[in-house]
User: Fold these one by one.
Assistant:
Number 1:
Amino acid sequence: MKAARIFAALLATAALPAIAAPVAFTGGTVMTGAGATIENATVVVDNGRIVAVGSGVAVPTGAQTIDATGKFVTPGLVVGMSDLGIDEVGGVREANDTRAAKSPFSASLDVVPALNGRETGIAVARAGGVTRAVVAPEASRDIFAGQGALIRLSSGPDILTRGKAFQLVELGENGAEAAGGSRTASFAAFRNALDEAREYAAHRGRETGNHENLYQRADTAALVAVVEGQQPLVVHVERASDILAVLALRTDFPKLHLILLGAREGWTIADRIAAAHVPVITSAIDDLPDAFETIASTKSNVGRLAAAGVLVGLGTSGGESTNQPRNVTQFAGNLVAQGRLPGGVGLTRDQAISVITRNPAEIFGMADTGVIAPGKRADLVVWDGDPLELQSAPVAVLIDGVAQPITSRQTELRDRYLHLQHDALPLAYRP
Amino acid sequence: MRRLFLFALLGVAACATDQHPKTAGNKPAGPAEIVAIPADPYPSTYHPYPGVTTVIRGATVYDGAGRKFAPGMVRLENGKVAEVGASVAIPAGATVIEAAGKFVTPGIIDIHSHLGDYPSPGVQANSDGNEATRPNTADVWAEHSIWPQDPGFTRALSGGVTTFHILPGSANLFGGRGVTVKNVLGRTAQDMKFPGAKPSLKMACGENPKRVYGSRNISPQTRMGNIAVDRQAWSDAVIYKRKWDDYTRKAKAGTAKPVDAPKRELVNDTLMGVLNGDILVQNHCYRADEMANVIAMSKEFGYHVSAFHHAVESYKIADLLRKENICSAMWADWWGFKMESYDGIRENIALVHNAGACAIVHSDDPNGIQRLNQEAAKAIAAGRRAGIVIAPEVAFEWLSLNPAKGLGIDKQTGSLEPGKMADVVLWNGDPFSVYSRPVDVWIDGALMYDAADPNRRPRTDFELGQPGSGDVK
């Protein structure tokens, strides 16, 4: 703990925003996120960007040097799906903006005004090394959940990096239920919604004269960017047949910019997904047939998809229980373990880093983060051990070159209750 | 046989002092026939599968009771742990497993599972985990909901879980009876029941009961309502017990006839079982202040809480929990999914342990149960960063011996000590590393899982003929 604090204190004085002098992290093991591990490497950060990385990199004159010997350096973690910033307490309705079951709107719902940079979960995730995240609303009444955002987990209220970053639609069991009871209904609803959006676009948003539209005007307007391929469409489906049905939608809607979410049975048709050049955001650990759409679940899914050439990133289902954003390193590590079992297909350690850094960043068009390479944003995590290991933790987190706090409400609770001996005053008087 | 059938029909068994109706049936009925509540009307039909004498050599051994042998050896014989240490005898004909670089531990025990009751797939037709129709359903038994074909059992096995406790859900104040099972698939739930393990009574504090019933305008609607309804139930149970004790005393003295026996009340059967010490209380309770209320209530009515489950705030009263000898069953880092879990911290388990109280890692989750070792690893690390250094061989108690204590089966299993059930896991690396997985799992000395042998990886009926059946999960 002490070492971590000293390290953090060093950083707090060293890495300042923008005009500060360059900072060089020396001697650490750098896992670049792009598939390489470099021993005894130097990473130079300047003006919020990475300017050099490698084993033979010279520390620029005037640069502050931070000795990272014995430590690991990775890109900041990028969580490919989450509810960070819109869910303070899952079970407290007033503090949870993930769902809007009573709203008349669907596709037009936009998480941006709901984002709260001071949500305690953001500091918790940041202390786990998460620097960027994809935030999505949850569908409830309609197949369309609405529009998600990309955030950075920097300290302070301003966390938005891109709003209206994608639309989310449910076309598996959830979608069938929301659409009226079956997949026939959800796919019909989907096609109708996109047809209405096309018609709306054709009339440039003016009255079409068609008063039988099923969708609200705002929802239809929101779907124009989807049907025109300007906004990615994240489709939650799990069953292999559902994945194929989604890929087939491009026959009628050729511009759709598809991203599959879930795809637990994707491995059974991995070559088809790869051929369609559709990336996948999924979970690493789901291996139960917990629904009829997830019968073929296995922890080999990610490994097999990757082996087939599918670009895969890890996301979380959100929430604060089994599938927390701060635990993506654990999930990725489990994929390495899977590859070490007879018959299992997993990832190498470098690949495991990529599915929680570069890949989700690339899938959501954040090409300037998720990789330690010159020119990229200086989103970095320094770890006290192998970043995939359960007992490792960040000792420093940088976002855009700025050292971030790695304390949270949880560390304050811990410090207050470390000792239970009676003091002169109640515990509530402790810091 | 005929006698037993008759007793079963009447819901009574001869001979009050005998807790085992099976033996009761074999005794000739004396003149003072005494009606008794059968202690075990749905008995275990579990039987261990055959094993061979096995010696594991060269591995690092965590015995689950705080000891480490590196390298060490373990011998399994006749279904039991025969010997553990730096060196053990190798009988002629024993199977010897060379395990250098691997780790041996006791089988993991999960004190909080809903496998079988909330099975996969999670369709309404199979959702049998919570009889949420009344605040007090102490009359229902989780074992009567178990679907033996839940694929979740096989996933837990591949995570090294050899024993677990299946509890009813937490909507009710009194959710019903929980059951301890061995993770050996059977055709019936009784085939899985851990022989001789006491049942539990699942209780719940906090948000769930008050929300579920309060929203129906039924008491409880508040936390004070929770305690009030609890206390009335215990008070009624005390009277019930008094009636049965009085009847039994008189019947033994020959002054009461079978017809004088009190009417069976299944809710109170369970609560009386707790008051008699035959049923252990497993109490879902997140907040420290509510645990304290429950402790006071348990003293008011004369019972003991075996473990608080989901005890995310145990760290706030770890000293009290140690004093009261109550285990805490905890997640490593769940928090904030509901108001009463808002103060969850990763140091909880280490802080409870450090206070000298009984710490248990539990899952409550069909995914989490597969990685309880990983949860413990996170807790070790959080503790270390807070200045609490816990050796891995000591921390393994959270996964085996302590849950065994919480379930009252620590004399039979939970550690690698001679004479105990040979419930053993061989890992391909340090169980507290993310890269490690079980490669072999023995239950009662029988090899029930082998990662390298598809014929030693069980598949439930449900998965047969389905895509991915038999795959490495």
Number 2:
Amino acid sequence: MTKIIEHPASVSKERSMLMQKEMISAHYDALATSNDDGRKVVYTFVPGNLNELVRSFDLLPVLPEINALQSGMRKLSGEYIAEAEKQGHSEDVCTYVKCDIGMLKKGNIGPTGTKLPKPDLLLLSYTGCFTFLKWFELLREEYDCPVAMLHVPYQADGIIHPHQRDYVVEQIRTEVIPKLEEVSGRKYDEDRLREMLALSSKAEDDLVAVMESAKHVPSPIDAYFGGVYYIGPIFSAFRGLPGAVDYYSTLREEVEARITAGEGPITPDGPMGPERYRLIVEGPPNWTSFREFWKMFYDEGAVVVASTYTKVGGLYDRGFRHDPSRPLETLAEYCLGCYTNLGLPTRLSLLEQYVREYKADGFLINSVKSCNSFSVGQLLMLRQLEAKTGIPGAFIESDLVDPRYFSAANVKNRIESYLQMLDQKRQTVSA
Amino acid sequence: MRQQLQDLIEYARLLYEDVDLTVVSGWKNRVEGRKAIGHMPIYVPRELIHAAGMLPVGIMGGGDRLEIVRGDAYFQSYICRIPRSTIELALSGRLDMLDGMLFPAICDVIRNLSGMWSILFPERYVRYIDGPQNFEGRVGGSFWKHELVQLRDDFAVIAGREVTDENLRESIAVYNENRAELRELYRARSLTPWFFPLSEVYYFLRAGNVLPPEEHTVLLRKYLEEAPRDPERKEQDQSRIVLVGMFCEQPPHGLLVTLERAGCWVVDDDLLLGLRWIVDDIDVEGDPLENLSHAYLTQSVSTASRYAAEGNRGAWLVDSTRRNRAEGVIFSAASFCDPALLDQPMLVSALDRAGIPHTEFKYSEDTGQFAVIREQAGTFSDSIRLWSES
Ligand code: SF4
Ligand code: SF4
């Protein structure tokens, strides 16, 4: 669901971008040689992932959602989805799954062009999405390897109840850790886990500072199109590692320097022109036409100042931090608190807060066909948010990685007329 | 057809067609202060509702009998039909007699629908029911027991009375009887499917959504007695089929009739699975919540929304096909139904490995044209009959 991607080549490279690139390629190198090096591999999902725990056993994580979105950006997803559909997967279901299965059927070549290792364990962190369950059941049919199931209850009322947390902790203790021990051949080392959690927390502070920099007018970042790069390391394989700490402190410095210089976000075409619209976005982006999609915004001077997609790996901006003093409890609370694991009323109120806190002019929902977890209820959210904020919203439909569901002309049209409407509204107000 | 049988079928049919749930209002109005709790598919522990003296009411969308006026405005085109017709039922006031609504964990659609319900009807009792996917007693079991305690206490408040262990034991016994009768219906149908055609059986299953369980059990019992007495029901050369994928959004009745006309005897299915979720009797002695929880962990059906910890996803289907001496499987899932459609390739592989023929199509609750399905099911039915004769 989230991403580790390289910034487009045309962007003038800031140090943080290079750091991220290096981190990613080192990780894929380690994966490519994992068989020879005798390192074991755990496949898992982004929301509510237990990266520190996995890493504390010296295991290497693979995140199939990221492979899928990478395939989308590299224009391979269409072919992979077609392959999966040819093999009997329905056209109706989530395209991340089909993209992953199609990639597997075509040799499992990862984003860096090398073959991905097979999993030694499927860590089914079942947070915020039912499809995860079926996805790893499907992968289990392909690989002869154990599965560790971690069922994370839904926060329907937006509250973490103690018995929910205890349930997740008990599963980590009795299901996840024993399987990680078995696969890695190492004992659970709580001190090591604590050290990693402390590093996570440090990086999380800096991530929040980066994301909240968008409260400045003009915003120094785009918190959606740029934001998906910023969340890459912390939502995926790097949280809890020193590299992520360095990356986020560097990124924070860069962003703070941009605030001081009064600069706006950097886009694939260089620094963005004057900020004309401040928007909030709900829903994941489209990956197959990601740059084209982003361009539709920055060409018009529209900057996304906050987004919910960048919260699928945790609501750090609402105060959550990994707490090394309560290692398993904190992991449980982390899993429980990811955005798509929250009931609709909580999601709605978060959006409302964003509109106000970030002084947004408008908000847009990108409703993706693949993802019922995000999409069901968004039309109601749209109307409710309009009523609560008095601001009209925009609604567009696309998909994550299925190129058949991104109609550039329609989307562009929608965005342009929405921004025009915001203009008219402004004129009426100032008249 | 004998009059008694005709009357029974007519009664069950009227219950099925009663989109306004007048039978539920009628039940409530008969005694002052009665309450009813609605729930979506698949499974909720109805014993708890019953033990509080309330009526559990299964809500399965509006089928093809409801015009969608408002519901479509709430859902994108790529989302299945059941949430929109369910919202339509609620917005049109047809669910006003319900004193609460439960949304069991089955997929992200039902899950998010629970939140929509809270937003749209803030004054009503809404609860998401998160059944455990960990089946260890001290892990998933203690979580589930906690949820059950909460539910029992909530229901006690709504009902305005205490829910004692004794009440719960009685309700477990009532539902044990109901499930036993349902098992008997499935067993009898598998042996002599010509007595129990699906298009009829379905009405009797649906009656379980709205009748008090005691009445439903009696109704099933009468049907089981009466149907074989009908002299017109004779063994016919039809194919024996297991039908899979209809556990949530309901097929239009016409589709079930179509399958029969296409030459299929359905000998097992996953329709109204929640009524039969617990496959055996639940212990009546001892701690009733512990017993309910234990049954959930160890005696639940296999279905797409329940994690198969032991792997071997399609084993239950192969087993059902063999046990019921079925000659083939028809996959019939609601369009856009992620759980059913993501499950299907795994079930298909299991059938292929076992050499069991299968075919597949999709429907939605308001499908009105059955010509293609009839053609497909007919061809499939003919081919597997030829296959098993050869
Ligand atoms: S349904 Fe949504 S959250 Fe789930 S795997 Fe697909 S894209 Fe990710
Ligand atoms: S029909 Fe399928 S996708 Fe739709 S609500 Fe039911 S289980 Fe979910």
Number 3:
Amino acid sequence: MRSFKPEDKLSRTEKMLSTDLDQETVLMSIEAGAYYGMAGTARTIWAKLETPMTFAALVDELVKQYAVTPEACAAELQGFLGEMEKEGLLHVG
Amino acid sequence: MSFGDYYTYGLHIRSEILCPELMPHAQPGEDPEVTIRLLSEVPQVTESLENKYFEVQPRTFRMSVEGVAHYVVEDGRRISVEPAEGATVDKIRLFLLGSAMGALLYQRGLFPLHGSAIETPWGAMIFVGPQGVGKSTLGSQFHRQGYKVLSDDVCAVTPGSAGMEVLPALAHFRLCTDAFERLGVPESGIFHVDKFVVPLGDGYCSHPVLLKAIHVLGNQESGDPKFEVLRGFDRVKFLLENLYRPEYLEHQSTQSDLMRMAGAIAQQSAVVNVTRRRDTALIATMVDFLESAWEENFGPAPVKETSEGEWTNAQL
């Protein structure tokens, strides 16, 4: 699985339909017909990535919002963004 | 050319094809929102369709039913019908009020669910599920037991002032509409649609009703019926899976709107899984079962308010 660098540009895929339910954002892949539920931190990350930004910028944003060190945040993001990319939810430019 | 003015799905429809299934409009002199025209020749429809059964463009829907008619639905406002030679009006109406109407509802930004809908003291209840699961049968059983019917094939949901509403559709209940559409015209070319047209009389609801719950019906091998209120994003999935004629949705902008509406519907109303043994002897007990389940899950039946303006049915 990829290792994200601070300067990697991240953007959401265009190929999802989305809607908001109480505690989660629901995504549906138009092509695959697969559904994803994003709650909590995942939901926040998805919302922030509406504007494409670098990995480093995303860490900065999250550190402002959550009680987490930049290092711990970056480490967690590696795994989560990797999953997103694997599912086709994330573009890395 | 004679025409009828009707009220259905919240719309004033003026149609050159007379439709006894629909409620007559109380103010026929007003401008209609939708017009249905009968045309004797629409050559461009035949040419552009080639062998395809239907074609979806952003604001135009075309459909050909062999031996019945060509239909064009435009801008959510106009339906043009070119009958095939020898086609009977009842068959033309079947596809007009089913598929063509479904396409119109999508063009108008409504959320059409495939199933039946009734009015209850808790609000509108919709029954959806796979082909043949018994949605119309259950709807007609409720009708037999005194509940008013909103629709029996296409349930149009739309945001209203107080929340998501189900719009009234028919003045006559048509059983097996979907079965006829799927079977198409049989070899003999003869089938009597009107045999299945059951006048509802007082049994239809003529005003929009706030949506309370959508029930996804399923079968089970054995055991008592089950009523399970769903949580989480399964609700969105079930709503989208039970859209009427989803193959009429080709464009992402419509899909985005529908996705958002599905979320809003799931927020405002319950989505329930109902499974039961498929047994005709049980059908009457299903009404009792659901009434109890509604009371248990949604609280006691709210006292019905007196309705404000009774729809007067102008006799044609």
